[in-house]
Specification:
The chain is of the alpha/beta class. Helix content is 39%, strand content 18%. It folds into 2 domains: 174 residues, D-Maltodextrin-Binding Protein, domain 2 (3-Layer(aba) Sandwich); 155 residues, Periplasmic binding protein-like II (D-Maltodextrin-Binding Protein, domain 2, 3-Layer(aba) Sandwich), CATH 3.40.190. A hairpin with a 5-residue loop joins strand 9 and strand 10. The radius of gyration is 20 Å and the shape is elongated.
């Protein structure tokens, strides 16, 4: 797997993002402290703080509600993007980080962290075309790559119209939108473009912060969606859950089996069937362009990062308990938000690996 580039925010911007996470979390904690016992894990400090992936944000926020109800522990999660989330956990300013661009085994070793998958989801391609609803426009991978390379610039280009017989497409300029911040969603998206376009792979590659050949950048999913919705003729990409919740038009994509499919939970599940979860590699896996007639081609996992060496056993155990809750009690919540739950055979191995999380050599889990 190609190493993810994680320098797009720059050190200063990442530091600002991390500081914002801590400030907001502290504010949330102070407002809820009256209902949290000081003896509860993290209760006196306002709960557990996590930061990173916007791809995983809807899921972690939903899990946090259920976990607080069952344990009394507040989870303050801020979707600041995978790059900022990695910076935060590396700097130990949060209790867990979240990324869709997994660290390599050597990076995990250097940083002294454990990494594990928490769910699988899909990246949707969104458009704003007058009179066009979801599923009416179809693209294949090479054409999508050429749009983002700046080679296909009009909606009535023959590369697009040949894939959409009977669909009236305008002779309008394609307004390309991408993420401006360091993003795991961008890593999944550009990993897919690298898999289907040799030109993209050689000129740009898979990255959280690529050097985009063309287009306008928006911050986080909300920024991308706003820019797409503001200008007719726009195209962009966001996690499917965000697109669905905000009723944004999506397109169908041609998968490796030559079938056009829509972004759906069933399509993400089909793609996940062939995922390889290797504990020795930090469970890092690329699910893009997966085989299968029903597979959505831009599918990816999201991962949590936790420091192995901990200072407070109760806080560390609360972090792991949150993800244990998600694995064992949050599957239905995950599917309701169109995420694919991690199989029990995988999370059982993950929880065995949590024995590496320790205080002065003593494991905090179970």
């Amino acid at each position: 797997m190609k190493k993810a580039k994680r320098v797009g925010l720059g050190w200063a911007a990442a530091a600002v993002a991390v500081l914002a996470v801590v400030v907001m979390a502290a504010a949330c904690g102070s407002s809820s402290s009256s209902s949290s016992s000081s003896s509860s894990p993290g209760g006196s400090s306002g709960g557990i703080v996590g930061a990173g992936s916007t791809f995983a944000q809807p899921l972690y926020e939903a899990w946090a509600q259920g976990f607080k109800s069952s344990s009394g522990t507040q989870i303050n999660y801020q979707g600041v993007g995978s790059t900022a989330g990695i910076s935060a956990i590396e700097a130990k300013t949060v209790q867990f980080g979240a990324t869709d661009a997994p660290l390599t085994a050597s990076e995990l070793q250097t940083q002294g962290m454990v990494q594990f998958p928490t769910a699988v989801g899909g990246t949707a391609v969104i458009v704003n075309l007058s009179g066009i609803s979801s599923g009416q426009v179809k693209l294949d991978g090479p054409t999508l790559a050429d749009i983002y390379l700046g080679k296909v610039t009009k909606w009535n280009d023959s590369a697009i119209t040949s894939l959409n017989p009977g669909v009236k497409l305008p002779a309008a300029k394609i307004n390309v939108v991408h993420r401006a911040d360091g993003s795991g969603t961008s890593w999944i998206f550009t990993s897919y473009l690298s898999a289907v376009s040799p030109t993209w792979k050689s000129q740009v590659g898979a990255s959280t912060s690529p050097d985009w050949p063309t287009g306008t950048g928006g911050t986080k999913s909300a920024g991308v969606a706003t820019l797409v919705q503001q200008v007719n003729g726009s195209i962009g990409y966001v996690e499917y859950t965000y697109a669905k919740q905000n009723n944004i038009t999506t397109i169908d994509m041609k998968n490796v089996a030559g079938k056009f499919v829509s972004p759906t939970l069933a399509a993400f599940t089909a793609a996940t069937k062939n995922a390889k979860w290797d504990a020795s590699a930090g469970y890092a896996t690329a699910i893009v362009n997966a085989p299968g007639a029903s597979s959505w081609p831009i599918t990816g996992a999201t991962f949590a990062l936790v420091q192995k060496s901990q200072n407070d056993a109760e806080t560390a155990k609360s972090v792991l308990s949150f993800f244990d809750y998600g694995y064992k009690n949050g599957a239905s919540t995950a599917t309701s938000l169109d995420y694919v739950p991690i199989p029990s055979s995988v999370y059982t191995q993950v929880e065995s690996d949590w024995s590496n999380v320790a205080v002065s050599g003593t494991p905090v889990w179970p």
